[in-house]
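Exercise: predict the fold of this chain.
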Amino acid sequence: MVWVELPQKLDLARVQKRARAESVVFASGDVFYPSAPDTSCLRLNCAKAGEADLLRGLEILGRIFGEVGA
């Protein structure tokens, strides 16, 4: 597992929808807090993915983060 805290608030529901359309799935970090966190965070599970899949997934997430955060 990898815990990610983003530098700015993002609409993670929107990010999740777009990422899922490209076969990238992550857990929104707010489900791990008792109340709303001050930042956008997420949990990535990379236990079963190979290096190429991990790189592809991170590239997709990076692109989506840039588009949604712009």
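Check your answer against the key: The longest strand covers residues 2-5.
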